[in-house]
């Protein structure tokens, strides 16, 4: 029987036994003939005040479905969601007063200019026009969007549009900020602006952030804690460093072949049996002594002529995911 986690006084979000099912569809998630697919399967989480908490997993793992239930946009089949003590399952309309949500799609703002999108969001959140405009101006300046404030979102590049939607989410401050893949399509400058804005609000206002991502680089650098999601379940939850300790005795070896791997070399064929393939790239998780032997194999003899590049690295969150039995073995972004 699953142990129930004791509630903490500093939890802003508390999720218990959250379950959502859909009919199984042949050719998609689930096995043909099964009655249902569990998009969320008994999820239990606690997000603490002032932390940046992440949901990490490949596309299709159930992250966005979980977030839609947390934000009151989707009703679960079972379980509970509390935000700052409010029951969001029974009173989903309260979510809008407690959190700001940046979803993957924000097409409702497309016809508006950057300026008007931010101002309108503030007014809808209860600000008077003067206050909404003041916050709008401050946020656009903070994110470097003032030069394009008069342009319609639909005429912006993907990264600019995403940044403008993030700006709108910040106007009309909420204690909880829920961001679903917030930096998709952004260049490095825009990404830095997003995380600087998040850090500033957490430091100055105690804002709590729930981040959905499949980008392991982002997760390792910005998150305090992360829940790894696989097939609707939380398969691990800890700090990035704590999770990586679970595979600290391993080394990640990546091999890139020029055209094809020389499988006629017995040692390379043996490595192939343990490798996760992505085109010309092989990824292996090995004990240190095995990693040394693998490097010796591919950098000497007949295999070397076929090798384009190789790297050795300490474990990442992707390695943790694979070690924990994640289903979509190539589903996480590395850079």
Automatic annotation (TrEMBL):
Principal cellular location given in the protein's record: membrane
Domain ABC transporter residues, every copy: 13-256
Annotated compartments: Cell membrane
Assigned keywords, A-Z: Antibiotic resistance, ATP-binding, Nucleotide-binding, Transport
Biological processes per GO annotation: response to antibiotic
Entry annotated with the keyword Protease: no
Record carries keyword Nucleotide-binding: yes
Transmembrane segments: none
Pfam (any one): ABC_tran
InterPro entries named among the record's database cross-references: AAA+_ATPase, ABC_transporter-like_ATP-bd, ABC_transporter-like_CS, ABC_transporter_ATP-binding, P-loop_NTPase
Signal sequence bounds: none
Record-given protein name: Export ABC transporter ATP-binding protein
Organism, as annotated: Streptomyces monashensis
């Amino acid at each position: 029987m699953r142990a129930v986690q004791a509630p903490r006084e500093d939890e802003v979000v508390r999720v218990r036994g959250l379950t959502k099912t859909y009919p199984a569809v042949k050719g998609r998630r689930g096995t043909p003939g099964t009655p249902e697919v569990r998009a969320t399967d008994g999820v239990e989480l606690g997000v603490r005040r002032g932390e940046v908490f992440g949901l990490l997993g490949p596309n299709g793992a159930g992250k966005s479905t979980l977030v839609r239930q947390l934000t009151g946009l989707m009703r679960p089949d079972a379980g509970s969601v509390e935000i700052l003590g409010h029951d969001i399952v029974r009173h989903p309309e309260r979510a809008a007063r407690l959190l700001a949500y940046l979803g993957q799609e924000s097409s409702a703002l497309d016809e508006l200019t950057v300026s008007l999108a931010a101002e309108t969001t503030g007014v809808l959140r209860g600000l008077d026009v003067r206050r909404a405009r003041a916050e709008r101006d401050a946020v656009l300046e903070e994110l470097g969007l003032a030069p394009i404030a008069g342009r319609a979102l639909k005429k912006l590049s993907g990264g600019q549009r995403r940044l403008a939607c993030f700006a709108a989410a910040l106007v009309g401050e909420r204690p909880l900020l829920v961001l679903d893949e917030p930096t998709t399509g952004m260049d490095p400058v825009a990404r830095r602006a997003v995380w600087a804005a998040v850090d500033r609000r957490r430091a100055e206002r105690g804002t709590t952030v729930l981040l959905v991502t499949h980008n392991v680089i982002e997760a390792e650098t910005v998150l305090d804690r992360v829940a790894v999601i696989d097939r609707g379940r939380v398969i691990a939850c800890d700090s990035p460093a704590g999770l990586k300790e679970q595979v600290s005795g391993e080394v990640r070896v990546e091999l890139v072949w020029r055209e094809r791997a020389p499988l006629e070399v017995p040692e390379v064929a043996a490595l192939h049996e343990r490798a996760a393939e992505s085109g010309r790239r092989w990824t292996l998780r090995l004990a240190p002594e095995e990693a040394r032997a693998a490097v010796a194999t591919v950098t000497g003899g007949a295999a070397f002529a076929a090798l384009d590049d190789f790297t050795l690295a300490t474990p990442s969150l992707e390695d943790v995911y694979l070690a924990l039995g994640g289903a979509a073995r190539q589903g996480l972004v590395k850079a």
